[in-house]
Specification:
Layout: H1 36-65
Length: 71
């Protein structure tokens, strides 16, 4: 990490700069990357649930309720 005050490189484990004795900023943890495969799996699960609901509401529910002819 470079010191924001003097620009000298300091190892990551240091808390103060070895050259100017200024406190170094704490390193930020890396952000987690979103897994595109996980997002795609979630999308397919939502599509499958939507299709299952459509089947239940348009085909099975009228038959179970005795609503007459099926569509």
């Amino acid at each position: 990490m470079d010191c924001p005050n003097c620009g000298v490189y300091n190892p990551e484990d240091r808390t103060v700069c070895w050259r100017c004795d200024q406190e170094l900023p704490k390193p930020k943890p890396p952000k987690e990357k979103k897994d595109p495969a996980a997002l795609q799996r979630r999308m397919w699960i939502i599509v499958a649930i939507a299709i299952a609901l459509w089947i239940v509401l348009t085909w099975l529910l009228p038959v179970l309720l005795g609503g007459g002819a099926t569509p």
